[in-house]
Amino acid sequence: MQPLVGQEKLADKVLFTVADDTVKAEEFIAVYNKNRDIGEEIDPKTPSEYLELYINFKLKVHEAKALGRDTLRSFVREFQNYRDQLAKPYLSDKDVTKELIKEAYTRMKTDVRAAHIMISLPNNPTPDDTAAAYKEIMEIRKRVTTGGESFDLVAREYSDDTYSARNGGDLGYFTVFDMVYPFETAAYTTKVGKVSSPVRSQYGYHIVMPTDRRPARGKIKVAHLMLIDNDKTTADQKANVKKRIDEIYAKLKAGEDFVTLVKQYSEDKTSVVRDGQLDVFGINKMYDTFEDAAFALQDSGQFTEPVKTPVGWHIILLLDKIGVPSFESVKAEIRNKVERDVRAQQSQVSVKKRIKMDYKFKEYPKDFKLAFNQIGEEMLQSGFKVPAKVKSADKVLFEFANKQYTVADFLAYAEAHQGAYTRSTKIEASLYRMMKVYQEEELLNYEKSRLAEKFPEFRLLEREYYEGILLFDLTEEKVWRAAMSDTTGLAEYFAANRDKYRFDTRYHAYIVDAATKKLAKKAIKLLKKGMSRAQVMTELNVESKLNLNIDSAKFELDGLDIASALSEMDEAGKSDMLEINERYKQAYVLDIEAPRQKELKESRGAVISDYQNYLEQQWIKDLRSKYAVKVDQAVLKEVEAALD
Q1: pLDDT tens digit string along 103-136?
Q2: Is the dihedral of CA 566, 572, 575, 580 positive or negative?
Q3: In the structure, what pLDDT confidence band is assigned to residue 301 with cuts at 50, 70 and 90?
Q4: SS3 of 453, please?
């Protein structure tokens, strides 16, 4: 965090205290700045107003610590996991990361199609497993490179990836981040038609043969109209859906408006409110048939024929072909992916070298055997115990940052961590590997312990996570779960605030949505005769399943598209007819229910939410009476001036 002008001296001043906990100006300024943009849009707060909220938060934190919540094993474990995640960006080499980001963007410009053959490895393979798999993949590679055998046929017969083996090893087109990094690199660096050297992944060994390259499809923006047809749809329903989608397609071809048809018929509720628009997507994000049909469209406004996917039938409208975005627009996204990906290991190797130099790491390999000779083959079966009398116990094996690690330290580490080496077969190789792991763990743990000291922004973020995790369970206990389980308290709160929970006027009605005025009138007539909603729809949808839809419920006016027609009614009967999105809507009202207070069971969700707010306010009131809060008004004035 870069300090604001004039804040360098202010940062270390104590702004307020809660009992014996102090909060410095630096912390408050950072939190206020982080939240002010969101707050200005929703509920803007001055620094003084926000200070009251932050004091309430710190009161809860102090209470949690007073109750010993910060010492619970579950809290310590969860916080450590979060802290490890926060530390990752600080344990990577920025220069190496930059190169990986550039490499990823370059690859983003090209889609690769490739086939592969895989020889799988078991979980935790032994050296013998690895050697056998490598030998087998090398023999297969020889058969398809110099042996004259078809890659397709060999893949079908020998590949352990049974899904792609059915297709001769073909994986289709993919782009950067779609495959594990070593596999991706082989696909992008091997010439089309050539076979890569064996590549190791967590699944086994692969040989990769690129079969095509094309300019990247990039990304695309489309809207769609969808009718549901999935594995739960019956045969009769499937025929019905197909007929309806064909009718809608005919309407589009006849010139009817796509958005209007989406609002009338689409069953994808999440996209209807956006006129059918979907989030921008690239390859391998949609079903193949959907993706191929969408990318085949050339001009904005062009639409597809009905396209079938496992979830239903779609008509897709092209809104925009975006192509490959600019480097600057996707740089942050690529960085996040690189840091989460296995390729980040290259950056970590560089960091380990830097840490060794920073802390003047020295090792004494000639003395390693003083420790190794005291560990026998039993370690490979988790049977090693530190000897009662350790020879050369104080002999230093490595050191850094004025810390020394001795023979005795290494033997204790070996006893505690030997379980990770039970699949090994050679004790000496295992001990050298263990020594390397031990050194790296100690170096990284030391670096992690100094991050808060070295990086102010890390210190502030670490505190934010610490306090957020600390408060979660306590708030759940005091507020969220309490409101759900305290049935007596909830009932008492409801009784005291009953006037807040009311039904507006409700209309028990059928709402008819028809293609024509004539059809709407006919539907209302049949409903008045006592015919059921389903019977009316069956009778009037003979020529087209799109002709008529009828909803039935108790409706309030808020959010109802024919609210203006219903609001004019004061008794049962039919409403005025309205034209909405080139459809005709009319209500047949069976009963009008006057406004009334709700019962608890009818408003339980809202009451629980309000009761939670009440419990939290009471909790804060109790904490303010329990713990002394002191604000340094002079420092507050400086903070306000700095934030102005």
Answers
A1: 999 999 999 999 999 999 887 676 678 889 999 9
A2: positive
A3: very high
A4: helix
Length of the chain: 644
Count structural domains, the chain: 5
Q: Are 206 and 114 in contact (CB under 8 A)?
A: no
Residue 79 counted as domain residue: no
Nearest Cα neighbor of 160 from 204, 201, 97 is 204
Q: Return d(Cα 503, Cα 511) in angstroms, integer.
A: 20
Distance CA 179, CA 342 (A): 11
Distance CA 589, CA 586 (A): 10
Interhelix angle for 47-66 vs 604-626, to 10°?
A: 80
Same domain, 421 and 507: no
CA distance 223 to 581: 18
pTM: 0.56
In which domain, by residue range, is 434 found?
Answer: 359-449
Dihedral sign of CA atoms 148, 149, 155, 160 in order: negative
Return the closest-CA partner of residue 183 out of 196, 169, 168.
Answer: 196
Cα–Cα nearest to 54, from 476, 480, 611, 639: 639
Same domain? 495 vs 544: no
Q: Which helix (H) or strand (E) holds 551?
A: strand 548-555
What Cα–Cα distance (Å) separates residue 354 from each residue in 37, 235, 335, 468? Answer: 38, 66, 21, 33
* Rounded Cα–Cα distance for residues 216 and 173 (Å): 10
Reported as half-sphere exposure (CB side, CA atoms, 13 A), residue 160 has a value of: 14
151, 160, 157: which is closest to 196 by C-alpha? Answer: 151
> pLDDT tens for residues 25-42?
999 998 998 887 664 555
Written as six digits, the tokens of 186 are 């082989």
Does 496 share its domain with 544? no
- Nearest Cα residue to 433 out of 509, 354, 375: 375
What digits encode the pLDDT tens for the residues 336-368? 898 888 887 777 788 888 899 999 999 999 999
Quick check: helix, strand or coil at residue 632?
Answer: coil
In a shared domain, residues 439 and 424: yes
- Residue-wise pLDDT tens digits, 379-417: 999 999 999 999 999 999 999 999 999 999 999 999 999
**Looking at the domain assignment, is residue 368 inside a domain?**
yes
Residues 223 and 172 in one domain: no
Asked whether residue 267 falls in the same domain as residue 200, the answer is no
Provide the H-helix boundaries in 341-450: 344-358, 368-372, 407-417, 427-449
- E strands, 279-354, where? 307-309, 312-323
189 shares a domain with 267: no
200 in any annotated domain:
yes
Q: How far is CA 551 from the centre of its chain?
A: 36
Give the whole-angstrom CA distance, residue 20 versus residue 29.
21
